[in-house]
Design goal:
Layout (H helix, E strand, L loop, with lengths): L1 H32 L3 H13 L5 H17 L3 H13 L8 H12 L3 H14 L4 H18 L5 E4 L9 E6 L6 E6 L19 E6 L10 E2 L11 E8 L4 E7 L9 E7 L9 E2 L10 E6 L5 E6 L9 E6 L11 E2 L10 E7 L2 E6 L9 E8 L2 E2 L3 E2 L10 E6 L7 E7 L10 E7 L4 E9 L10 E6 L4 E5 L5 E4 L9 E7 L6 E6 L7 E4 L2 E3 L6 E3 L21 H9 L4 E7 L9 H18 L7 E7 L5 E2 L3 E5 L2 E5 L3 E2 L2 H5 L3 H11 L1 E8 L23 H4 L1 E3 L1 E3 L4 E8 L2 E7 L7 E3 H9 L26 E9 L2 E11 L6 E3 L1 H4 L5 E4 L4 E4 L1
């Protein structure tokens, strides 16, 4: 009996203890559901002490304690609880504990063991795609550790306390005041938050002094309007600091449960009573972490309302004006939101910065960035180390005062360098400096070339130019060369082919002084014979198989867009049905037409047919083989009819073949495209037969101010126009046009009659200075050593008198046909 009585009382005591444990467990579970994790731990511990020998119940309680620590951010306290459950084989009931332990280990920096825990989980649940992806994310951490960004970060110790301090935001446009959330001593609420175990949070403000140091933080509002005994957090300001949106978490207001967004206005002295901002149709949903556009019409926030992808998602809402309610909220989509948590959005131009636990990261919350697209948002990119760490990194805010730099603040609870729990950190992306420099030389003489024009055009639209100095040196400095831009360099100077090169800063993470030297090739002198272009006998159509022979010329003209060339076609002297002049002109025109079809401006091309009147001249020894017949040609040979007739018959055909050719010569290197509805400056693109009659007919137009004939003239290789004024006492040139010739090197000091005395102290040409122009080309005629007098203003670049034009020979002017005809 005694034994039976003892057993009965033991059984009764056990049942009573378990019953007490169950009741306390229910109370703890209720606190857990209300996210009062710190209070829940206390209740779970009490329930555990009453659980007796019920191992299953004890493990259940330990699991809830571990979860409470995890969800309240007490990662290091959670780890031993999960390990204890693994030893008890509780993973048979809750395999997810391996995943949660892995997350806690990763947070503390123990990546190797974190990966082991995930692999253990996948042995039990091999088809879990989320954890498979999480494992891959963990393995990427090594890449981020080995490839940190150039950001520098600093813990702002003057602002941080031993408690949580987070979500820094600039108060106004001056950016000398910073508002943040804190649970430090001095907060309005004296109670402890059952979630964090710290005080309820308030909004604090600090200002920057003249030395750039932050003052001791104080309450943003001491009246009890903004800062209350509840949790206020995540303030965001617009209207130059006079309007605030913030998160309020408490059940102290009858209109609110959970965490919601409120707004208040500052009248210069006091904050208005906060007004609730309705954003979710579900009154039980939380809405937190507001970001608001400067005009107050767009808000991005975090919520757990229905229709999301995970625990917490980012949403957006808009309104017509700053005083109307926001419209229906839209989820930012699956590229942004995950099955984890997303929050603390910050929109900078078209870049969205936010924190997430669901995207591939280093641990806890990481900060990500995504670009706006026409269809939504790009796949976010992790900002990498050092901004992100294995801890929670969140609440980034950028300075908007610096548009060309990247700096601001963020929050982190990393241990290394930290002071309390969540701390405020600053970040800066140091500016990378790039330069491009080099020297320009003559490719043949190797002499340095002063006053060469060097221009850069960047893919960002920037175009800058400079001139080489007396040592042929040029340089573009760090204010002109930017990161992630590709530059095209072009070098031009009188009498040389244009040179170009490519330099890029794309992908460069460190500054660099790039050196690019140039060797300039002189313009080809005389004529250049093109590769074989053959025609059917008596025909002029350009056969497709010979179009490739023009590719070199096309490339030359594309790379040198200011060249004007003459395309000359020649025939042999054997008679055909039409004249050789007509046939050669049509063949030259067929080449011009093809070049135009490939995008070469017509104003840069002159077609001339010389018939058989210009036999080929060989300056060097050459040989040509057709079939099994080879013609050897000595230097200085001219393939005249007499020379050909003296050749053996089998070699005559080779000589005729060499005379049938198409060649080009460079006329000028100063082409400027005409306006779309205007007339080209140059009229050399008029197509005309190269016969004696055409050489004697020079077209002109009427100059509007003077009603006098205006012709094209090429002065030392540069195109101008001149007005023919028959009775002018002397030839004149405008000051600006004379300076143009001087700056481009087409004239120099030695061309002035008075030498150095022709210039003032600033280097400008003095009035009435006399210049001797070495060469004037009018039509096909050339005049040498023509004197002109500099005058301030003219109706055209030059005025030439009758005495000068008579050097061309006798002439008449037909104002109806607008032709000057030489006798």
């Amino acid at each position: 009996m005694k034994f039976l009585r003892h057993s009965f009382f033991a059984f009764l005591l056990c049942c009573t203890t378990v019953s007490f444990a169950q009741k306390r467990l229910e109370k703890a579970d209720k606190a857990f559901e209300l996210q009062q994790y710190n209070y829940a731990v206390t209740l779970y511990q009490r329930a555990f002490s009453r659980a007796g020998k019920n191992e299953q119940l004890k493990n259940q309680i330990i699991f809830q304690i571990a979860e409470s620590y995890r969800l309240s951010g007490q990662h290091r306290r959670a780890i031993p609880q999960y390990r204890r459950l693994i030893r008890a084989r509780y993973y048979d009931i809750q395999p997810i504990l391996y995943v949660h332990l892995a997350e806690m280990l990763r947070f503390t920096g123990d990546l190797e063991n974190a990966i082991i825990q995930l692999e253990s989980y996948l042995e039990l649940v091999p088809d879990d795609e989320y954890v498979q992806q999480l494992l891959e994310h963990f393995k990427q951490t090594e890449h981020w550790e080995k490839n940190p960004t150039r950001h520098t970060i600093e813990n702002i110790r003057r602002l941080n306390s031993k408690d949580n301090d987070w979500a820094p935001r600039f108060l106004d446009q001056a950016e000398r005041s910073l508002v943040f959330t804190s649970a430090r001593d001095g907060a309005t609420g004296k109670r402890m938050d059952d979630w964090t175990g710290q005080r309820f949070t308030d909004l604090f403000i600090t200002t920057q002094d003249q030395k750039g140091d932050w003052n001791t933080p104080t309450l943003l509002d001491k009246s009890g309007v903004l800062n209350t005994p509840a949790n206020e957090a995540d303030a965001f300001f617009i209207n130059d600091g006079n309007t605030v949106f913030f998160t309020l978490c408490a059940n102290l207001r009858k209109t609110q449960s959970g965490c919601l967004i409120y707004t208040s206005n500052f009248d210069g002295e006091n904050w208005s009573e906060p007004q609730y901002v309705p954003l979710s149709p579900d009154s039980t949903a939380d809405c937190v972490h507001p970001w608001v556009s400067a005009d107050g019409r767009t808000i991005i926030f975090t919520s757990n309302m229905e229709g999301g992808y995970g625990d917490l998602d980012l949403w957006i809402a808009t309104r017509d004006n700053a005083s109307s309610p926001f419209g229906p909220s839209q989820n930012l989509g699956k590229n942004i939101n995950t099955s984890g948590k997303e929050g603390w959005a910050f929109l900078r131009d078209s870049l969205l910065y936010f924190s997430s636990t669901g995207h591939a990261g280093l641990g806890g919350f990481d900060i990500f960035v995504s670009s706006k697209t026409a269809d939504g948002w790009d796949i976010p990119e992790n900002m990498g180390m050092p901004i992100n760490s294995s801890a929670d990194d969140f609440g980034i805010a950028f300075s908007t005062a610096c548009r060309d730099c990247e700096r601001g603040f963020f929050s982190s609870n990393r241990r290394e360098g930290g002071r309390g729990g969540d701390d405020i950190w600053s970040f800066t992306l140091p500016q990378i400096n790039f330069t491009i420099s080099g020297v320009v030389r003559d490719d043949e003489t190797m002499q340095l070339m002063p006053q060469a024009l060097v221009q850069i055009v960047g893919t960002d639209g920037l175009s800058v130019q400079t001139f080489t100095n007396n040592r042929g040196f040029y340089r573009f400095d760090e204010t002109q060369i930017r990161q992630n831009v590709t530059y095209k360099l072009q070098v031009t100077t009188t009498g040389y082919l244009e040179a170009e090169a490519i330099e890029t800063t794309v992908g460069l993470n460190n500054g660099k002084d790039m050196v690019r030297d140039f060797r300039m090739q002189p313009l080809p002198k005389g004529t250049v014979v093109l590769p074989d272009i053959l025609y059917a006998v008596g025909q002029w159509d350009l056969i497709e198989q010979y179009q490739d022979s023009l590719m070199g010329l096309i490339e030359l003209m594309e790379r040198n867009p200011r060249l004007v060339v003459e395309l000359a076609s020649h025939t042999d002297n054997r008679p055909i049905a039409m004249t050789n002049d007509s046939l050669s002109q049509r063949r030259a025109q067929s080449v011009v037409d093809f070049l135009i079809s490939r995008g070469i401006h017509p104003g840069r091309l002159v077609a001339r047919g010389y018939g058989d009147r210009a036999p080929r001249v060989f300056m060097d020894h050459a040989s040509k083989t057709i079939g099994d017949v080879t013609l050897e040609i000595s230097a200085g040979t001219v393939l005249t009819p007499y020379f050909i007739d003296e050749l053996p018959r089998n070699l005559q055909e080779v000589a005729h073949y060499l005379n049938r050719r198409t060649e080009f010569s460079i006329l000028r290197d100063d082409f400027i495209p005409p306006a779309e509805d205007g007339e080209p400056i140059s009229i050399d693109n008029l197509v005309r037969l190269a016969n004696l009659e055409d050489d004697k007919r020079i077209p002109f137009r009427i100059n509007p101010p003077t009603n006098l004939p205006e012709f094209v003239v090429v002065i030392n290789g540069a195109s101008f126009t001149f007005v023919y004024e028959e009775n002018a006492e002397r030839n004149l040139i405008g000051n600006e046009d004379a300076m143009r010739l001087l700056r481009t090197g087409r004239i120099n000091r030695n061309d002035f009659k008075d030498g150095e005395k022709a210039f003032d102290e600033e280097g400008d040409i003095v009035k009435n200075a006399v210049i001797t122009l070495r060469e004037l080309r009018i039509g096909k005629s050339v005049l040498n050593h023509i004197e002109v007098t500099v005058t301030p203003e003219l109706p055209a670049p030059l005025i030439l008198n009758a005495e000068t034009l008579k050097l061309l020979g006798e002439f008449t002017i037909d104002r109806v046909e607008r032709i000057l005809e030489l006798k």
